[in-house]
Every structure is written in C-alpha cells, then in structure tokens.
C-alpha cells in the first residue's frame, strides 16, 4: 500500500466526565471512502479529553500498521485538533503524555493534517466510542478490511460482599514526599538525593497532621532511603509519638537514568523515540534507567513484607510518585494507562485497607486538603 492516503475519524467520550469512558476510530481510504480499519475500546473511568486523545492515538496506530503515508485526521474535538495543530497550549498535565504519544505517531507519516468537523459528520467514530462505553466492545482488527464484530456477551456482574471482619485489615497510608527543587520545576527526580525545600518541609508537616487525623495508632513509619522521603517520614513519625523511621530500599523511586533532572519537554526533544516507547510500554526503561515493570516487582515485594510484618495494623509508607502509583494501580486493578493519568501532589496522602484474604478497599487517593 505504498503511497496510501487515509482519513482518520476519531472520537471519545465519558459518561460522567470523569466516568465510564471509551474511544472509537475509523480509518478510511481517502479516495474511495472505504473503511480499512476500526478500533474501539473501553478505558474504564476517564475524562472526555483523555478518551478523545485515546481515539486519536488508536487511529494513528491503525494507519501506521496499514503503512499509510499521508493522513487527514478529522475529529469533533476542538481541543484535540487545536492542540495537535500547535495553536493551543496543553495546560492539563494529564493530557501531555497522551499528546506526546500522538505526536510521536504523527512523526511516522510523510504528512498529517488536522481538521475539526461537526459531530454529525463524525457519526461512525462516535458510534464506536459509545459501543465501547457500553462495555460490550473489544478492539477490532486493524490491518484487515473492516467487518462487523459481534459483541461478546456481557459478563454477569460479580456480587460484592464485605469481608467477614472489618477490623482485621492492615491499613496502608501512602504519602508522597514534600516538594524539592526538582518537583517545583517539573523535572524527573529519580535516584538523585535532593532535599526538601522550605515549602516541602511545610508540606511534610501538614501531611503529618493529616496522617495523625487518619489514625493515632500507627504501628510503623517506613520510608524510601532518599532524604526527601526520610525527612518527610521523620516529621510524620514525630507527630505519631516519636516512632522510629524504618528505611525500605525497595520503596525508592524509579531510576530515570539519562532523564534525571530533565523536564518532559527536554526529554521529548532529545529522546523522542525512547520517550514514545517508554510511554507505550511499562517494560521499556529510560536510557540507563529502570522500567516500571521492574519497579512494580520490587514494590510488590515491599508491600508483601509490610502486610506480613504488620497484620491488622496501621502502617505509613513514605515514597515517591512511581512506587505509589504502582501500588494504587494494582490495588484498583487498573491498566498501565493509569500510571500516566494519575497525578500525585507533593505530600499528597492516599489510604487503602488490605484484608488477610486479599480483599482491598482504596479509601482515598491523593488527598491534598491539608496543603491548602
């Protein structure tokens, strides 16, 4: 299909914004209008804008697999079209990784043009997005001619019953360290041992007060070995009655390798292909760094150790963005996209209960009221 010109019609939606979300994308031959590929999938709980970007990404991926050279993207999302055309800034930090992934795909084609169209001209993609949101859709084939795909029968909802005892859970309080100079500048901060700023100290003290409000019966305060965490943990331990701080090496941040202390924009400019691959797969590591899969493995081990050592107790874990996100991803049974969509503030607090039978209840994510 050398020289193939295609039209991508893409859409996404969320019933609740955020709420149950899904996307759809149709790839057509630019000359005949023939449908060459369709893609649609559920995203779980997400926003409209995340779903719209996901539809764009799916359409670009399908066009790339068809070896298209020139692409016309048509969407009824003014925001996505204007941002991808470079006319609007991407102010929402949660959309930047998705925009970067889309931009990396755009670079694979000889030409890509973006056009806004009214919703009534985007009915095919909209129908696929709604099908995905209905929860009865699977991703359809990409490189084969489009065909109707029968939706699988909807799974019977699993009943939820509370644990036999509500008192024997281990409560895990997850605290991200306070602000550092790199945090305030939006730079990757992995293994570098940067201290808290004055603001970070104030944030850590506020987090200590919040933790005390959750429980006055804390059994242990565990911390990453880096000083931004141990200092935050010490303030929490002092507020809890002078507990010792126990360092757990496996709670350390992801090793960002060559990207350490760089901004997202700097990494995107200097390592565009590596960034695209990293955003697409948790098995990919930054140059000279560590993959999220590797971080997840050691963090799971650390959590298992905590649950074994402190059954039925309240334990505080002071760590970094990546380990905390991975713990919450697993607790919520979320997909890998969760890692790029969840924002964790400096000194934000999250809480979950884990029962001996493996049941988990996530009670809060990224509490920040104590920082206001």
Automatic annotation (TrEMBL):
GO cellular component: cytoplasm
Gene3D superfamilies (UniProt xref): Phosphoglycerate mutase-like, Ribonuclease H-like superfamily/Ribonuclease H
InterPro entries: His_Pase_superF_clade-1, His_PPase_superfam, PGM_Phosphatase, RNaseH-like_sf, RNaseH/PGlycerate_mutase, RNaseH_domain, RNaseH_sf
CDD domains in alphabetical order: HP_PGM_like, RNase_HI_like
UniProt-recorded Gene Ontology molecular function terms: nucleic acid binding; phosphatase activity; RNA-DNA hybrid ribonuclease activity
Region called Disordered, residue ranges: 138-163
Pfam families: His_Phos_1, RVT_3
Stretches assigned to the RNase H type-1 domain: 2-142
UniProt xrefs under SUPFAM superfamilies: Phosphoglycerate mutase-like, Ribonuclease H-like
Signal peptide range in chain numbering: none
UniProt-annotated catalytic positions: 177, 253
Low complexity bias locations: 141-153
Domain of life of the organism encoding this protein: Bacteria
Binding site for substrate: 228
Name by which UniProt lists this protein: Probable phosphoglycerate mutase
Organism: Actinoplanes philippinensis
